[in-house]
TrEMBL record:
Keywords linked to the UniProt accession: Isomerase
PANTHER family linked: GLUTAMATE RACEMASE
Keyword Isomerase part of the UniProt annotation: yes
Keyword Disulfide bond on entry: no
Protein species of origin: Actinomadura meridiana
Coiled-coil spans in chain: none
Classification via InterPro entries: Asp/Glu/hydantoin_racemase, Asp/Glu_race, Asp/Glu_racemase_AS_1, Asp/Glu_racemase_AS_2
Name of the protein: Aspartate/glutamate racemase family protein
Superkingdom classification of source: Bacteria
Length: 281
């Protein structure tokens, strides 16, 4: 079976890495959009059009499921994407791990892009799943873009800025952008001692496996990893090699759990599906 993952840039790496770790037999199709990146600054019609184009390309290549490991794209167009392709092909969005962070009884901060921080989607997520706990919303301008470019200095400055605006009482930090787990060790170094990061990539991967039309059979093989760049066949960009999971996916081998986890990073095993207008999570 084949799973397609769609994002404008490197935000898909962590979820792809977890899928590779949990079900190495799967074929992975990574659909990136360097011509349109970053999506965070683009209009709703632009993002929706790029998502639909990538999804149609995935189906032409016999994808059995479509994953959108991007909070901006999930905020913007997951409902219309599901309306078009489900129930024939499952469409899995990405939800920041607010619920498990709140369940742990923590004081919470949510780090996200400016667009996601300002969205009604994130406000609804917090209202529904924070259990009344106070939540600090920390916009992180430029961090996702720096990660996409493999720009260590720019990422470090953006992390310093976000950490300086994160109150010291917040000992749980939810990573509300799928790019941020790639620099989780750097984020942890800037936060107060004992802080824990919450990332949803593993939960999204497990939800994807649950929603496949049939169980993945473990037969000892390792599936392929194909990359599309704005509709063209290609390779993972050089910036992906700045991160362990990117290097592992580029070589096409198995991926260890250690390559996916930073110290004190929680990856809840049970995912929360994005609430739609007709359902509750």
């Amino acid at each position: 079976m084949k799973v397609a993952l769609i994002d404008s840039g490197l935000g898909l790496l962590s979820t792809a890495g977890w899928l590779r770790h949990l079900a190495p037999e799967l074929d992975l199709l990574l659909l990136m959009d360097p011509d349109g990146a970053p999506w965070g600054s683009q209009s709703t019609p632009f993002i929706t059009d790029r998502l639909f184009s990538a999804a149609r390309s995935a189906l032409k290549q016999d994808a059995d499921a479509i994953v959108v490991p991007c909070n901006t794209a999930t905020v913007t167009a997951i409902d219309v994407l599901r309306g078009e392709f489900e129930p024939g092909v499952p469409v899995i969005g990405t939800v920041p791990a607010v619920k498990p962070a709140a369940a742990a009884g923590r004081s919470i901060a949510v780090w996200a892009t400016v667009r996601t921080t300002e969205s009604s989607y994130q406000a609804r997520l917090i209202a529904d799943f924070a259990n009344g706990k106070p939540v600090e919303q920390i916009a992180c301008p430029g961090l996702a873009e720096a990660i996409d470019h493999g720009d260590v200095d720019a990422a470090s400055k953006a992390i310093d800025d976000a950490a300086s605006r994160t109150p010291s009482h917040c000992d749980a930090v939810v990573l509300g952008c799928t790019h941020y787990p790639l620099v989780a060790p750097e984020i942890l170094r800037r936060l107060r001692a004992g802080a824990t990061l919450y990332d949803s990539a593993e939960a999204v991967a497990r939800q994807t496996l649950r929603r496949l039309p049939q169980p993945v059979v473990s037969d000892g093989t390792v599936g392929g990893v194909d990359v599309m760049l704005s509709g063209r066949a290609g390779d993972l960009p050089a910036s992906a090699h700045a991160y362990p999971v990117g290097r592992s996916l580029a070589t096409g081998g198995r991926i260890s759990r250690e390559a996916l986890l930073a110290e004190r990073t929680e990856t809840p095993a049970l995912g929360v599906r994005l609430p739609q207008r007709t359902e509750t999570a």
